[in-house]
Design a protein that fits this description.
Layout (H helix, E strand, L loop, with lengths): L7 H4 L9 H9 L1 H6 L3 H18 L1 H18 L9 H25 L17 H25 L11 H31 L4 H19 L6 H18 L2 H23 L14
Helix pairs in contact: 2-4, 2-5, 2-9, 4-5, 5-6, 5-8, 6-8, 7-11, 8-9, 8-11, 9-10, 10-11
Length: 280
Amino acid sequence: MPVAETSPEIAAPKPLWSWKLAPAFIVVTSAIPLFGFENRLVGYPWLVIGLVVAYFVDRELMRDLGIIAAGLIVVSTVSVKADISWPNFFLLGFVLSLAVAVPFVLDRFVFKRRVIRFPWRSGQKWQPWEKSYLFAVPFLGWLILPFYFISSGAYLNWPAVSEFSEVARLFVGVNAVGIWDELFFICTCYVLLLRHFPVLFANILQAIVFVSFLWELGYQEWGPLMTIPFALLQGWIFHRTKSLTYVIIVHLLFDLVVFLAIVHAHNPGVFPFFLIPAPQ
């Protein structure tokens, strides 16, 4: 498998300020009404406005924002609220897969480029900080997630599970969405935005979409105080490591604790190793 590379366009320095920010901001903030409020009547026109503005600002930017928009539209065709019923389990899996496939096909076969890639290998050994972070992530999740889910009541946004089939579907669903997050928000949205903006701005822009999606998924109440830093960290770590494998491992470690905390909150006494007891 080829070692991850950074395209010259992405690696080239970008000006701190650019008029390109205006249409990019409009397109990514369309995710707020689309996912945060599930309002397509506002989200779709706002998305189109962003693309029209991009047309007059920079045609190449319009193409990249159009690819992101295509993915957003695909995702917005269904509700991404946590629902592990068998029909929704397969429907959501299909739609999310399509939301990654459509941008990839547009980039690779319509625009004849190789901007969207999935670099499983970075070609570099993990640094000490990378290894240490893999231990820090589940520990921080153990400290934070049960407190968040139980104190805010956000665990009620996920179905109560008790049967083996339900628990298994919740486990698979949580982890599958975690992998999809990195494929779409980081390897697609973030990488496309990096062609036009400095790392800081590209990361903030992708985080807006990332956090809006997580809100609809169920990370509500004061969840953004947790999901915003997580989204920004994932973008920054990917930029540093150039490794999709690493950011997915980080995400799955975090999501493992998410799964355990949700089951704990719904089923008192099942996982007694959390500091906060489950509601009775």
